[in-house]
From TrEMBL:
<dbReference type="GO" id="GO:0016491">
    <property type="term" value="F:oxidoreductase activity"/>
</dbReference>
<dbReference type="InterPro" id="IPR012951">
    <property type="entry name" value="BBE"/>
</dbReference>
<keyword id="KW-0274">FAD</keyword>
<protein>
    <recommendedName>
        <fullName>Berberine/berberine-like domain-containing protein</fullName>
    </recommendedName>
</protein>
<dbReference type="Pfam" id="PF08031">
    <property type="entry name" value="BBE"/>
</dbReference>
<dbReference type="GO" id="GO:0050660">
    <property type="term" value="F:flavin adenine dinucleotide binding"/>
</dbReference>
<feature type="domain" description="Berberine/berberine-like">
    <location>
        <begin position="251"/>
        <end position="307"/>
    </location>
</feature>
<keyword id="KW-0285">Flavoprotein</keyword>
């Protein structure tokens, strides 16, 4: 295969280089007991203060803890729209140590030991997939598909902390739109220790979090799809002041065709300019292009956002 091709397919989108049949993965050791919790807070509980603290510490917390922050819109008892935040968390250790850690670095969340559940790591995989506590781990072997609804996903990266007022503005915009879900995934930790050139994926050190914008719907038809997808686009546009710039970075695995597509015609190079910067930055993309030109000079393996050859 060669080192350059291996580098390219471990983060550059395998579809551009061939058909990948299998990967060999090196596992890492985890302790026999891990701790999880899934606390919820609402905009009636000083949520902007909690969110602002999360964005200040999310990438700086102990490497053994991973705390996501997800926002959606719900109705309170009076039928008024409010924001709900969910904090799904995994800690590689026992609950007492986690409570001490969180109350030192993130006291605004108000974590108590009674919020925590200790289990094995493989059981935590079920927990993260919203299976009931006590579900046998053999459920992970099921090939039965979950219910699939249409959805639209876009992504962003946060490099500077969002202020409390900024979060309040974001919450108001979410309530204006329908079915909005914003998922903040923390970076830092091991992500920041790896060079942006080690793999094609460059968005590492300097990023606080990745944002996933998501809208799901059940209505059928083209008009419904256009309507709901446009809600995500409106949220994405609104978030411009709060996220990375030059380029406005994007997560490859969400495949956002809104940032540009390639017809693989005479204007292929210009068409690919925008999405390549957002996904890979220049240095990594140029290296991917060299690999592509060597292993697939005729550009047989391609899609709307695939890597181009030098002759494109």
């Amino acid at each position: 295969m060669g080192e350059e091709l291996f580098w390219a397919i471990t983060g550059g989108g395998g579809v551009s280089f061939g058909v990948i049949l299998a990967y060999k993965i090196k596992l890492v050791r985890v302790p026999p007991v891990v701790t999880v919790f899934n606390i919820q807070r609402t905009s009636q509980q000083k949520l902007s203060t909690i969110a602002h603290r999360w964005i200040q510490v999310a990438d700086k917390l102990d490497n053994d803890v991973f705390v996501r922050m997800t926002f959606d819109v719900i109705n309170n008892r009076n039928g008024k729209k409010i924001i709900r935040a969910t904090f799904p968390t995994l800690y590689l250790g026992k609950s007492a140590a986690l409570v001490t850690l969180m109350n030192k670095d993130f006291p605004q969340l108000g974590l108590k030991k009674s919020d925590c559940i200790e289990m094995s790591w493989i059981e935590s995989v079920l927990f993260y997939r919203n299976f009931s506590i006590g579900t046998p781990t053999t459920a992970l072997l099921s090939r039965t598909a979950e219910k699939l609804n249409p959805l639209k996903i876009q992504s962003d990266y946060v490099k500077d902390p969002i202020s409390k007022q900024g979060f309040e503005f974001i919450f108001e915009k979410m309530k204006e739109l329908e079915n909005q879900l914003l998922d903040f995934n923390p970076y830092g930790g091991r992500m920041s220790e790896i060079s942006e050139f080690a793999k094609p994926f460059p968005h590492r050190s300097g990023n606080i979090a990745k944002i996933q914008y998501e809208v799901n719907w059940e209505e059928l038809g083209v008009q419904a799809a256009k309507r709901y997808a446009n809600f995500t686009r409106m949220m994405y546009d609104y978030m411009t002041p709060f996220v990375s710039k030059n380029p406005r970075a994007t997560f490859l695995n969400y495949r956002d065709l809104d940032i540009g597509v390639n017809s693989h015609g005479k204007n292929a190079y210009a068409e690919g300019m925008i999405y390549r910067h957002k996904y890979f930055k220049d240095t990594n993309y140029n290296r991917l292009t060299m690999v592509k030109t060597r292993v697939d000079p005729n550009n047989f393996f391609r899609n709307e956002q695939s890597i181009l050859t030098l002759s494109s």
